Amino acid sequence: SMLARLFQHELLGMVGLLFKRERCRETGERYDYDVGQALNATPAAVYRDVKRHIKAKHADRSLGVWVGRRALYFGGDSPADWGVGLAPGIDVYHMAISINGKVYNMCTMEDDHGTKRVGEPETDYNIDSDQGRTFMWFFVDGVEVIRSGEELLHKAQSFTGRPYEAILPSGQQMNCQTWVISMLAYATGLTETQARSSIGHSTGGLFEGAQDLRSAEPIELLLEGWR
User: Among 131, 140, 117, 120, which Cα is nearest to 52's?
Assistant: First the structure.
C-alpha cells in the first residue's frame, strides 16, 4: 500500500541519517541534514550512503582525493543545519577539495565595480584541522593524483578573477562546485565530465542514478565494516 511504502521510505531515510550522525560524532565533522539524501531514501541510495560513511570513518584522509561539503551561510554567523544534495554543480552546499591531506577551498571577492568574482583560494589548512572539520568529506574512489603540490597550488590560484555565478554558471563563470570539478580534473587527468561524474558517485544526491543491489555486499559485511 502507499502507506507501507511511505513508512519504508521514512525508515530508510532515518537509517542513512543515523549512520551519518554517528560518523560525524566519531570524526568530529559538522553534521547537517541533507534534504536530497532524505528524499532519495531508496534501498540502493541508503546502501551507498552507508558505504561512504564507513569509508570516511576508517580511511587515511591524508591520502588521495576527498570532496568536502558544508552547508551554506544564510545571513548568520554559522552554516545552516541543512543542505540539499542534488548533483555536482547544483548542490545547495559549499564545496572544497582535499588532495593528499591539503585543502583547496574557493573564495569570492568583489571587483572595483561590485561584481562578484572568484577570489584567492584558501590553501593553508589540512583536512583534519579544525577548519577542515567544518566540512563533511567524501572519498573519491578510482582516481590517482598526477600533479605536484606546487602545480595544484598554481592551478587553484589561476582561477582568481573569473566571473562568479552561484547558480548554473556557464562559459568562464564558476561556482565553488565547478571550481572543485576543475581542480579534480587537473589533479587526476580526468576530463571535466568524468570529474563531475566521479564527484557525483562519491557524494550522492537526489539525482544519483539507480544501482542494482544484487551484486552488493551482504548487509552483515557492511555493518562489520562499520565496527
Answer: 140
d(CA 198, CA 51): 16
Residue 96's contacts (CB-CB under 8 Å, 6 or more residues apart) are: 67, 68, 70, 103, 104, 105, 106, 122, 135, 176, 180
Pairwise CA distance, residues 98 & 82, whole Å: 22
Residues 6+ apart with CB under 8 A from 84: 34, 35, 36, 91, 92, 93, 206
- In whole angstroms, how far apart are CA 80 and each of 18, 22, 122, 128? 19, 19, 21, 21
Per residue in 70-103, pLDDT (tens digit) is 999 987 788 899 999 999 999 999 999 999 999 9
Q: What are the DSSP calls for 140-197, one per residue?
A: -TT----S-HHHHHHHHHHTTT-BB-SSS--TT-B-HHHHHHHHHHHHHT--HHHHHH
User: Is the model's pLDDT at 122 over the cut of 70?
Assistant: yes
